[in-house]
Structures
1.
Amino acid sequence: MSILITNIKQLLQVHDSNVTIVKGEAMKTLPVLENAYLYIEHDTIIEFGKMEDCDGLYPETTIDATGKIVLPSWCDSHSHLVYAGNRTSEFVDRINGLSYAEIANRGGGILNSAKLLQKTSEEDLYKQAMERLEDLIKMGTGAIEVKTGYGLTVDAELKMLRVIKRIKQDSLAKITPTLLAAHAIPEAYRKNKSDYIKLITEELIPEAAKLNIAHYLDVFCEDGYFSIEDTEAILKAGKEHNLRPKIHVNQFNILGGVALGVKYNALSVDHLEELNDDDIAAIKGSKTMPVALPGCSYFLSIPYTPARQLIDAGLPLAIATDYNPGSAPSGNMNFIVSAACVKLKLTPEEAINAATINGAYAMGISNMYGSITRGKKANLIITKPLNDYTEIPYAFAHNPVESVIINGEFR
Ligand code: NIG
Ligand code: FE
């Protein structure tokens, strides 16, 4: 199977050499080729260039992209795609004045989703998540990290892992699974949290490692959830089983989770709605990607990640949806790119870098995804006719995507 896309108005994120991350000042640059072509064979980007140099290619299919923009599909590095049902009643409670913490303290929140997930069959969970994923693919997502975390028992967490494995096998989109057993303290362990930590470190992590589905380990490091000591115990156990951290930190409070994540060579530290100079200093010089989740700030009406401080300090930044039923019930990356511009004050170039190459980095896949580079996977967005790529974030809540190519297949 070979596809040639011709007359591309703007081909974005083109790199001759295989970049895997962009940081600081360099995030302001988004390499663009005007009036371009792109040639793919099977699932791989083979060639691209200016239309005037498009010669000697004999594709099976040609797509005319006159007036349209082509870019790498979005890499959503933080999602809770697998969950059961929804939490609309809590949404209304929050409109009526209750906070996320107040709802959680009444037994709502993550525990509410866990109760429902434990009762939901593997088949049903798979169907619900696949339906969501199909919607996201149409909106331009070509790679997505998916966490467990609504199981909160050994059985239910392993059930989630098996569901994620099936999605990974069946979907054309690239899926990276993360074990998030430490998402909340289950009701039964309220009075003896240390027993739940033990269950995670001594049973769940070794069992999950045996299944070899997840490569990453997450902890919700937050007041009322997992302290710094809890988080360290869990990361330590993960390290023994080759699970690299990608952790929830600084959503409501600064506990020191950023420095702890860096100490354990976290691939990413996510949320960061609260941030101080020590956090920025800790990330400097590390291999850890800070990840902002503006959909969560929007939905919960909490502060937005001070992204400018991070980028202006020379650090990289990724943006992701945090798609989940409690704090961000939307997986639309187009909205996230727009919100990053409007609320985090990223330029369109920075936002697109954050949602493609840096998103791929935060999933550990940027050697194969996130840029238009020869040899990388053919995961592409073809937009509706647009005058310029800045219209993607500008027209917030519109869908700029006309079609997608996922793993070399046109959709
Ligand atoms: O990233 N903060 C922890 N986890 C999710 C919310 C999960 C939920 O409310 O169900 C988040 O915001
Ligand atoms: Fe999350």
2.
Amino acid sequence: MTSIRTVDSHTGGEPTRVVIAGGPDLGKGNVAEQARVFRAQHDAFRRAVICEPRGHDVLVGAMLVPPADARCTTGVIYFNNVGVLGMCGHGTIGLIVTLAHLGRIRAGVHRIETNVGIVTATLHGDGTVSVANIPSWRTARAISVDIPGHGKITGDVAWAGNWFFLTADHGQPLTDPVSLTTFARCVRSAVNENGYPEVDHIELFGPAQSGGHSRNFVLCPGGAYDRSPCGTGTSAKLACLAAEGTLAEGDTWTQESIIGSKLTGTYRWLDRPTGKIAPTITGTAHITAETTLLLDDTDPFCWGIQ
Ligand code: PYC
């Protein structure tokens, strides 16, 4: 029987499972190199932690690993029901609240080494967390794709630690997650087939309903929708707003999720000609469980239901 110790939390409804002990040895490389080893050699571990019967498709894993950069508090590899993620905003907020819960960190500034670069997380005295994400930018403006049975929609593509297609031009009420999931999957196929195979997150925007600036629905790579407004998705939105000139540097954007939870975001310019910004998102997380996962090799579903 193998044991894996985890702490679960949720950030605006979106769950994070931090693996604090029992993870595989991924060698001595930096986090990007360790993530490559994880992807190539330990996919069964990913499935065992995230997929049913121990987990579910909404869950995001965050495995603590040694950082190569000595200035970092920890390294982390984010993963979900289909693979390894780049960055994860809600997950970083959950990670920081988890480390504070375990007594490993106090309020203050903490560098975290991720698969796609170093982010800086600030745990504030009131328990909220701000995450200064990696440089983010819009890579394509106003591309049009044809959605079978619906027609053309137009949106932007942006990188913010994950790849996003962002659109408000979809004609869907942001109410029913089941029909939005079906629609967003069609959008993703069309975007992927029309020159953007890297896009794995689809972000649909609509009018705010709870006092924010806008509400979103985010389809994640594994087919689940983000219960939070998505930290990297909000960073991608900030990059588009900055590029479009509709949000000034330093101004606050409040993004609502499909369930009404909120993240706030601001940005500063890194390089105006290329549209590169440094986004910061702020939110809260709550601990929901401390668990020891048990892996019994004789269990036919020990390594997850695929
Ligand atoms: O918060 O960045 C995020 C995220 C990515 C996938 C799910 N949540």
